[in-house]
Amino acid sequence: MVNETAATKIIGSKSHSYEVAEGWLKLPAGRTLGYTHGICVDEHDNVYIFHTGEESVLVFDKDGHYRSGWGEYGEGAHGFYLHRDADGVEYIYLTDIKRGRVQKTTLTGEVLLDIGTPELPDAYDENRRYVPTDVCVAPNGDIYVSDGYGQYYVHQYDAQGIYIRSWGGRGSEPGKLIEPHGISVNLRGGEPELYVADRRNNRIQVFAMDGRHKRFVDHDLDLPCSFYFFGDEVYLPDLDSRVTILDAEDRLITHLGEDQQAYKQEGWPNLPKSYYRPDKFSSPHGVCVDSQGNVYVAEWIFDGRITKLVRQRQS
């Protein structure tokens, strides 16, 4: 393990040790961030940030240099997912919580698919909004959307955006959800499973791909927001001020940057700048891992915050 010095901040555990790459992100002159909600990496380890400011998708290389920007999603920027489809091409799937849309785009922003509110009169009307917070794609191309800020359903579509089924609704019993904020596909076992960050129930709820409830993961979590699967591990941003890493059996490996005082501060998540520390998180909202095992964290703060954690190799 690398020894910490005055100039180097190391966080994590013996098996998962990271150096905080202070000053990694180099924004262009005059550019600022809005709330940084989503973050992902492509096959070349370029980093894509989804935020509520100008040019909603910002692209940086692995060294933090700005490459490009696109999209005007404004306050709607939220769920953000990069997926390699069956054609071998990487695409971005994103959600717009203001317009109630789910879109599939190229890596440069060309919209290829646009999905609106499901035609479900028993669930949605002028008083019951549809607010999609996250999206993921199954191996067969089916698209799954979590309505995390609306009526708390999960919706399934085929690869062309044709509606298949829905399940969920408000509640805490198996199959019910309260703020299903994030959604992803677990491919670590014998068959795909759907992981839902059932945030206000403080748990992960695991479903079969047809919506059948399978089990809960309800330990070592504190308002889980979303998922990033890397090898046999899953990385979760806990909104209450830490990133959690679970092993292949969904057992705790470590928490990164945990600050159990941050979310208790008056005015959280928008705290005075003097409060923030490079090696502590306040409101993690999105996380991803590049090909080298480096971790990138996006935080829900009005002027954005992106942290890069460089994985330390064990001797």
UniProtKB/TrEMBL annotation:
NHL repeats lie at residues 168-210, 281-305. Pfam families: NHL (PF01436). The keyword Glycoprotein applies. InterPro entries: 6-blade_b-propeller_TolB-like (IPR011042), NHL_repeat (IPR001258). Keywords: Glycoprotein, Repeat, Signal. Gene3D superfamilies: TolB, C-terminal domain. It comes from the Bacteria. Coiled coil: none annotated. Signal peptide: none annotated. This is NHL repeat-containing protein. It comes from Paenibacillus arenilitoris. The lineage of its organism: Bacteria, Bacillati, Bacillota, Bacilli, Bacillales.
